[in-house]
Design a protein that fits this description.
- This protein has helices at about 5-20, 25-30, 40-65, 75-85, 90-105, 130-145, 155-170, 210-220; strands at about 115-120, 125, 185-190, 195, 205-210, 230.
- It is an alpha+beta fold and about 250 residues long.
- The strands form two sheets. A four-stranded mixed beta sheet has the order 4-3-5-6. Strands 1-2 form a two-stranded antiparallel sheet.
- It starts with a helix and ends in an 18-residue tail after the last strand.
Length: about 250
């Protein structure tokens, strides 16, 4: 999928988040999200600060001066704590304004810097255009994390198609030590046919399900409903997601 088309998908996802937040009371926003230790206000604040952080990467590509995604992990966490207690209207305004700023930056990125290297907070590099796809992950996954009625079943089909295929490809490129309990598995999306062999050999375990079911499970946004394992047994815990992209 062309990254320029993804900007519209991201914008639509942010509008859906604003709609969800608009249905929550301030007490709801203080309530626990699906992420341990984070309230819904923390999640909403993170969605906004993530837009700012990815804007930084695009600005670095535009100017040729490296700008870190976040000043530091401590600074990121402090900003989340500072913003989490705001009212619903304040959170919505922040989410929408920062999203619009990011989208404008992406839409006006000069063609000659699309492939300029930038660096994720965790240290791995990627071309500037991939920042838009990273934002797509953040918007859709963290909408689920609000624990306010939006789940993997609500993800738009274009996101599921891209993110499930990308997740399987990225996992297949991970070193065995990063696969955890999934080392040795084969994972297959029954509808798309996408497959990840994670050191699999004949007779080793396999997991399969629709692309949507697999994405929900592998992203940690579902309990694995709709995913089957052969031989029968409990689903293993997937490694932390999202993963470093498997080359460009």
């Amino acid at each position: 999928m062309d990254w320029r088309d993804v900007i519209d998908e991201v914008d639509a996802g942010v509008e859906r988040i604003a709609g969800t937040l608009g249905k929550l009371t301030d007490d709801d926003l203080r309530g626990q999200s699906a992420l341990p230790g984070w309230s819904r206000g923390h999640v909403a604040t993170h969605i906004a600060r993530n837009a700012d952080s990815l804007w930084n990467l695009l600005e670095g590509a535009r100017t040729g001066v490296e700008i870190p995604q976040y000043a530091s992990l401590d600074a990121r966490n402090a900003a989340l704590d500072e913003g989490a207690g705001r009212s619903g209207p304040e959170l919505i305004e922040d989410v929408l304004a920062t999203a619009a700023r990011f989208s404008e930056q992406a839409r006006t990125l000069p063609e000659d810097v699309w492939n300029a290297p930038v660096k994720a907070m965790l240290g791995w590099p990627h071309p500037a255009w991939y920042t838009v796809f990273r934002r797509w992950h953040e918007v859709e996954a963290h909408h689920v994390d609000l624990a306010a009625g939006y789940g993997p079943a609500d993800w738009p089909e274009p996101y599921v198609r891209w993110a499930s295929a990308a997740t399987l490809a990225d996992m297949a490129a991970l070193p065995e030590k990063s696969l955890g309990a999934l080392a040795g598995y084969r994972i297959t999306a029954t509808d798309s046919g996408d497959t990840a062999d994670l050191g699999w050999a004949p007779g080793a375990p396999e997991a399969s399900g629709s692309a949507r079911a697999l994405l929900g499970w592998l992203s940690g946004r579902s309990d694995g409903a709709g995913v089957g394992v052969r031989p029968d047994g409990p689903l293993p815990a997937p490694p932390p997601w999202p993963h470093e992209p498997a080359g460009f």
